[in-house]
Fold:
Amino acid sequence: MEKKKAQEEQQEQEMNCACSHKTKERSDKEYQDLMNRLKRIEGQVRGIQGMLQKDAYCADVLMQVAAVNAALNSFNKALLANHVRTCVADNIREGNDEVIAELVILLQKLMK
Structure:
């Protein structure tokens, strides 16, 4: 039920982004793992907000921001690995080699 609600919220958000509007059905485990990571990251960001409200020392805030960046990078790595194993591999098996160009463009954007 939570997954269905999240999908509906995602559809609303997609109307405001430059997304491809492709979809991918994830297993419950993959979905939960990714959501748990994002919830932890959200908690870290809220913690940074709290630090600012409490006038925390700049260096301490910067260290927490670095931790959030590392967590987002880890999230991206997990999502990218799964994308290559599933979406990209499935498309190649089906003869859709255009997915390779899409992957190259994606990697270039991620490496900026």
The mean pLDDT is 90.
